Model the fold of this input.
Amino acid sequence: MAEQNRKMLLWAILIGLILGGIIGAIFAFIPEEHASKRYALLVAAPLGDLFIRLLKMIVTPVIIFTLISGVASISPARLGKVGVKIIVFYMLTSFLAIIVGLAVGNIMQPGEGVTLKETTQEIQAKEAPSLVETLLAIVPTNPFESIAKGDVLPIIFFSIFFGIALAYARDNQDAKIKESADSVYKFFDGCAQVIFKVVGWVMMYAPIGVFFLIFQVFAKQGAEAFGPLLHVTVAVYIGLLFQMFVVYVVICSIFKISPVKFIKKVYEPWLTAFVTRSSGGTLPVSMDTAERKMGISKGVYSFTLPLGATINMDGTTIYLGVCAFFIANAVGIPLTGAQQMTIIITAVLASIGTAGVPGAGAIMLIMVLNSVGLDVSQGNVKLAYAMILGIDALLDMGRTSMNIVGDLCGTCVVAKVENEMDMSYWEDNKSV
Ligand code: ASP
Done:
């Protein structure tokens, strides 16, 4: 999507959100039984649902195509020492991020006090699977069945496996195997491009979808919905800032990289990610920063940064944790300890499966909610999810910027450990 269109769309979504909120809040004064309100809600429901259905429609193809093409683009030769180290780093920081997200959720309890009034359908929390069941269920017995059922975790698992195998096949000595593997890669890469086009079109409906979803929230709930939305936004940003100024700062210090200089150097990609809301789109800027400002060798960053933009989403992980809290609290079924354990796993995996494009995290939130028995097609869960969707752009800016900072932090650490970083770039007299 052209830059100009993207900006216009952002504005349109924001306008949809504000108008939906205002008109909904006005309707809140009309009694439930009044014909005008009943009729308005009757019209709004399917038009809002359409957006949720469109989002659900793209979850599986987005994961499959982007993960397979992303992972398969890595050359196995690089998967050696650098690969193992960066993957361990990415997993570890994603794990820390979800702990941060859940800690913020536990302390701030976003969504508490929200009283959603779903009139047509009462929420029935499905029995959530146990932790062991969740872990085992990650391995599909039949990947095609998982695809048909839309079970996201096994799809992620299989896609990563398939992507790695494809990377090896592309590297095969046998010219015939290499050639056919290259065709498979091109196919998935092409599909990824096509599905991004579809995502772009779905997002064009976002302003209307958001308008009708938010309208329903406010018409049923009144203006009290503003407070909880502000609360959850603040909670997400506190988590993100903690990750930046505590987690990454401590990691930099451990590896003797000046945290102050790191933050100064990372400023440009951080800001780019904030405004573009796309890890993929920010990649050229992060690479430029690694090369020109951090003195990292191309052999390291050309591998670690694209991989990070595909699988390492610390900001998204924090967002998933906090928003799961918000929705569970809002529907009046606060998360239990066991459910939080499940979220640790599903959120980390969901972040791996999140594409580096605007809004992808909100799609993955659906599966995290599913893993704890909350179905977004159901009554109040739908309304609470709609509230989050309404402010998604705002949350996406923060989480994307933290996704990018996490990638660069990992790249610095691995480059430092591997002696692939020109430390003269970090001396005091060197401008950042
Ligand atoms: N927009 C994010 C990114 O590109 C993904 C997300 O929506 O969480 O990193």
In short: Confidence is low (pLDDT under 50) at residues 119-124.
